[in-house]
Amino acid sequence: MPSIVGPIKINSVGGGVVNFGDSFYLSPKSSSKTNTGSGSLNTGDFICTNNGLSSTNPFDPDVNDQNITANA
């Protein structure tokens, strides 16, 4: 069904979806990349990590890793 939307003001939208009127399919998309060293993303109780020499190389020569295109 059609809808009538009056005056609006949106200051910011951070990671959400703004929808006015009818919609059949909403598919928000996002991507991110994290560079971490060994043993840095462990979660849980009583974690013991023994790392000798750890080095993280965040250099990325191909620039595009996770392309987000199209609407579906």
Distance between the termini: 22 Å
Low-confidence spans: none
Largest sheet: none
* C-alpha-based Rg, rounded: 21 Å
Beta-sheet strand percentage? under 5%
Structural class: little secondary structure
Q: What is the 3D shape? A: elongated
Helix content: under 10%
Mean pLDDT: 78
Give a count of the beta strands, DSSP E runs of length 2 or more. Answer: 0
Query: What is the tally of helical segments?
Result: 0
Family: Belongs to the GerPA/GerPF family.
Protein name: Spore germination protein
Pfam families: gerPA (PF10676)
Task: Describe, in plain words, how this protein is organized in 3D.
The protein is mostly loops and 72 residues long. It is 0% helix and 0% strand. It contains no helices and no strands. The model has no long low-confidence stretch (mean pLDDT 78).
Give a nutshell description of this structure.
This protein is largely without helices or strands and 72 residues long.
Key phrases:
single chain; 72 residues; little secondary structure; 0% helix; 0% strand; Spore germination protein; Spore_germination_GerPA
Question: Layout of helices and strands, plus pairs?
Answer:
Elements: no helix or strand
